[in-house]
Design goal:
Strand order of the largest sheet: 3-2-1-4-5-6-7-8
Distance between the termini: 40 Å
Radius of gyration: 18 Å
Structural class: alpha/beta
Largest sheet: 8 strands, mixed
Shape: globular
Helix content: 40-55%
Order of helices and strands: HEHEHEHEHEHEHHHEEH
Strand content: 5-15%
């Protein structure tokens, strides 16, 4: 439980908040995209990055809700630079449209926070006929990252500041299907288990960051890619499970992190100078943490990369 945790090597712990882990850090001149910024830890991540001077672009599925959050952030912090743009990660066409609109804006990009997600849904297919959790949590973010990578590289080179890609994963990655990623059975409804499918998508987030980190290092680019577990937080990720929601309503605040604590590791990995040059790692409680053996499988990471690229091609959107 977070309240029993001790500080790690970073000087922070599970009880640290996003404001605490970024205290004294000046993010002026940086631009960040935060997906899923209209609720939960996405909202808190956007708020705290803006508080530190970062120009934040909130990538949200519901523009009306996103604009309400944007207004609330600016009301609290009148100097905040916050924009809202539409993005539905379950649709490759929406991802491509978002990336095109962002690049047309001429904004630089230093930080990409792949935060949005759906958890333990019933079996559903995305608009591109891919199992919804895998499509939203992994494929959409994979495509978004690839489409914005040149902008990240250009910004890092021109500003001489390190770019950062942050994949918000989960400890549930340890509880994927036995084979880790069901490459040939992604859409097999007969084998579907909502929590295992969620674990699969979160394992994919870690493998994506690891393989991307390897490629960026090989290329000599000044951009890092890391993944993280934010902690157990009572957010709307549990909307498909009424029993869990009722439990969280009664006991959640006593055994789980609050949103301020839940966004801490994301903000730490995105902004803290301690992370400079660190890439391909998995974090929890604002410290480097241990992921599962499958998460460290470089061959599995390469296979997932190739598999996802093929999904792009089959949907006529080569990343």
């Amino acid at each position: 439980m977070w309240f029993l945790s001790k500080k790690g090597p970073s000087g922070f712990s599970a009880s640290s908040t996003a404001e605490e882990v970024t205290e004294g850090i000046d993010g002026t001149g940086l631009t960040a995209i935060v997906t899923g910024a209209s609720s939960g830890i996405g909202t808190e991540t956007a708020r705290v990055l803006a508080l530190r001077g970062v120009h934040v672009v909130m990538a949200v599925r519901n523009l009306a809700t996103g604009r309400e959050v944007q207004e609330a952030i600016v009301k609290e912090n009148p100097s905040a630079k916050v924009d809202t743009m539409e993005l539905d990660l379950s649709s490759m066409a929406s991802v491509q449209n978002f990336a095109s609109n962002f690049k047309s804006s001429g904004l630089p990009l230093s930080i990409l926070v792949n935060n949005a997600g759906v958890m333990a849904s019933p079996f559903l297919l995305s608009k591109d006929k891919i199992e919804l959790q895998f499509a939203t949590n992994h494929v959409g973010h994979f495509l978004l990252t690839n489409l914005l990578l040149e902008t990240l590289k250009k910004t890092a080179k021109e500003s001489d500041k390190e770019g950062r890609i942050v994949n918000v994963s989960s400890r549930r990655h340890q509880f994927s299907y036995r084979e880790g990623i069901q490459f040939e059975k992604i859409n097999d409804q007969s084998r579907y288990n909502g929590l295992s499918a969620y674990g699969q998508s979160k394992l994919a987030n870690i493998l994506h960051a690891s393989e991307l980190a390897r490629q960026l290092k090989e290329e000599g680019v000044k951009i890092t890619a890391n993944s993280l577990h934010p902690g157990a937080i009572p957010t709307n990720l549990f909307r498909y499970h009424s029993l869990i929601n009722r439990f969280l309503g009664v006991l959640g605040k006593h055994v789980m992190k609050n949103v301020q604590q839940g966004a801490a590791t994301t903000c730490y990995v995105a902004l803290h100078p301690q992370i400079k040059g660190i890439s391909g790692h998995y974090f929890a409680d604002s410290n480097i943490a241990k992921a599962s053996s499958q998460a460290h499988d470089s061959e599995l990471a390469k296979k997932l990369w190739d598999f996802t690229q093929k999904l792009m091609i089959s949907n006529s959107l080569k990343a």
